[in-house]
From TrEMBL:
Pfam families in the record: PAC2 (PF09754)
Domain of life, source organism: Bacteria
Protein name: Filament polymerization regulator ParJ
């Protein structure tokens, strides 16, 4: 673990966070942050004190062998820094588990790191279960509780009322602290909600790619998403009721998406294609 004092001044930093648990259907969001950490070689610089935020009877520690030595890994939230080579910028990754207690203190501690590192925006990733067919692109929506951020980025200002998770609490804490924050939500088909959900993870990373205006190396994730869809296709084909239900979801989704077949949408997708092709084989793809 590197020390916070040893981190050089960050370039155009943004914080990207995801938490296992209630806001992470199919582990899609936490897998997205783990992917970024892997492909860009994240350096962990902080881990929150597990005893402050976790009930170990709910989130139990794990025992593992390090040679002949038994070690314990405690459930916690870790922060790492990744340095994106092209275009040059730094990302602070927060990968953790939704805390069991002291949520306000938890958010304040994360915001303390954000302020100390000069983070300019906090992006949280989440995944929820939805009535969406696995055969269509995964819907990803962007929301914020900050009206200024909503206007500047063209996002929906959330009007949700009801139970919320740590993602919603952290976003609200950012708003009160004057830190621009937004959340990207991926909809995971509720009839195939078990982890992993690589197609939803890929959709979140594509959305983040567009927002940050950089190419993210996807590695084997694209093929994993394709294999996942083929596997679900086979399962659905074996059950007539499920197949009929999927067809109904497809019809409803296609009816909603008809207005999207516009020149503007096609142009946007072409720009994404060029940006991703530009990232292949370049410095970023080496991670």
């Amino acid at each position: 673990m590197i020390e916070l004092d040893d981190i050089p001044e960050l370039v155009d930093p943004v914080m990207v966070a995801a938490f296992e648990g209630w806001n992470d259907a199919g582990d899609a969001a936490s897998a997205a942050v783990a992917h970024l950490d892997q492909v860009w070689g994240g350096e962990v610089f902080a881990a929150l004190d597990a005893e402050d935020y976790y009930d170990f009877q709910v989130n139990r520690p794990t025992v593992w062998m390090d040679g002949d030595t038994r070690r314990i890994t405690w459930p916690t939230t870790r922060l790492s820094v990744v340095r994106v080579p092209e275009p040059r910028r730094d990302i602070v990754l927060v990968h953790g588990i939704e805390p069991n207690m002291r949520w306000r203190s938890f958010c304040n501690e994360l915001l303390g790191f954000a302020h100390e590192l000069g983070v300019e925006t906090v992006v949280t990733l989440g995944a929820l279960l939805g009535d969406t067919p696995h055969t269509r692109p995964v819907p990803v929506s962007g929301t914020t509780s900050d009206p200024v951020v909503a206007r500047s980025l063209g996002l929906e200002q959330t009007k949700y009322e009801g139970p919320t998770g740590i993602v919603g609490v952290l976003q609200e804490a950012c708003t009160h602290a004057g830190m621009p924050a937004l959340t990207f939500w991926a909809a995971v088909p509720h009839y195939v909600s078990q982890a992993p959900s690589p197609k939803a993870t890929l959709a979140l990373l594509r959305k983040l790619e567009d927002f940050l205006d950089l190419a993210i190396p996807m590695g084997e994730l694209t093929e994993d998403a394709r294999a996942w869809q083929l596997g679900v296709d086979q399962l659905a084909a074996e059950d007539a009721e499920v197949a009929e239900y999927v067809q109904a979801l497809e019809a409803a989704r296609d009816a909603e998406d008809l207005p999207e077949a516009s020149g503007e949408a096609i142009a946007l997708e072409f720009e994404r294609y060029l940006r991703r092709k530009g990232g292949e084989g370049g410095p970023a793809a080496g991670g």
